[in-house]
Amino acid sequence: MKVYYGTSNTALSKKIIHTMEKFYNDTYETKFKDIHSDKLIIERFSDGEILPRFLGSIRDEDVFFIQTTNSSDSIIETLLVIDAAKRAGSKSFTLIAPFQGYSRQDKTDHIRSSIGSKMLSDVLESVGMNRLITIDLHASAIQGFYNTSVIHLNGNRIFTKYIKSLNLDNLVICSPDHGAVKKNTDFAKAFPDSTFAVINKKRIKPNEVHSMELIGDVKDKNVVIVDDMTDTLGTLKKASEILTESGALSVRAIATHGILSGKAIENLENSKLTELIVSDTIGSVYEKHLQMKNPSKLRIISCSNIIVDVVDRLIKNQSIHEVNMI
Description:
Elements lengths: L1 E4 L4 H18 L12 E5 L5 E5 L7 E5 L5 H16 L4 E6 L18 H12 L3 E5 L13 E5 L2 H10 L5 E5 L5 H8 L6 E11 L2 E8 L6 E9 L3 H12 L4 E9 L5 H6 L5 E5 L5 H7 L6 E4 L2 H12 L11
Parallel strand pairs: 1-4, 4-5, 5-6, 6-7, 8-9, 8-11, 11-12, 12-13, 13-14
Antiparallel strand pairs: 2-3, 9-10
Helix pairs in contact: 1-9
C-alpha cells in the first residue's frame, strides 16, 4: 500500500496523512513511512501542461491518491497520476476525492446538454481507477454511473458532534429544498427531540431562485439547515431571511462542500445566518475565511477523520457501513 496526494487540497491531504501517521505508528508494526511517500512529483510546464512522476517503485502496490476534483486542472492532474501509476505497474488505484466535481450534472436538465458526472466516471475508469472514496455526491444515484467500487460517505457525521455541543433548545432541522429532505431526515436522527421544516423553492436557472416559501413552524426555535453543498449562498441568504421573518431565534446552515464562489462571502456576511458550517473538502474555504470581515460567521470542520476511518477499515477488511451511521 502506498499513499500520495495531489495539489488541489494540500491542507486537507496533510491532515489526512498526519492522522494516518499517528494512527499507524501507534497501531501497527509497519511504520507509516513505509506506506506514505512524498516521492510523487507533479511538474507544470510554462504553458500549463502537467507531468506527474513517481520517484519510487509502486510495482504491485495498492495506490491511494487524495485529490479534490473541483476544477478541470485537478481532474486532468488526477487522470495523469492514474495513468502514471498504471504504467508503473501498480496493482490497484483508489481515488480519495472528498469532493467529486461535476456531481451537479447528473442528468440532462437542459436540451442538448452534457451529463458531466457520467462523463467523468467513464474517463476515470477508462484510465484505470479501481475504487472511488467520496463524500456527499450531490445526487446519490451517481454511484450507478461507476462500474467500479464507490464508497459514498455520509457527510452528516462530520457535523453532528459540533451541533450537539451547542445544546440548542427547540431545535428545528430545515431542508433547503425537497431534494435535500432525505439528507435532513438522516441528520435529524441524531436529534430525536427536534422538529422538521422544509423550504419550497422555485429555481429559474442555476444559482438563481425565483421564489421560496416555508413549510413548518420555526417561531421561537433554533434552526439548522442541512445541505450537501453551498455555492454562491444566494439560496441560503434568502432562506435565512424567511426563517428569521417567521420568528426563528437563530439560523445556522451546514454544507459538506463549501464551494463559495461569486458573491458567496458577501452574501454570507449580509445574511441572517448565525454561522455557516462547512467541511474542508475544498481547500479554498480557508482562503475565503481569511477574506471575511466577520470570520466567526464561517466555521470549518475537517472531514479527515472519517476518511482515515474508511481507509483503515479497507486495510483490515472490515465493514464500512458503520462509518456512515449517525
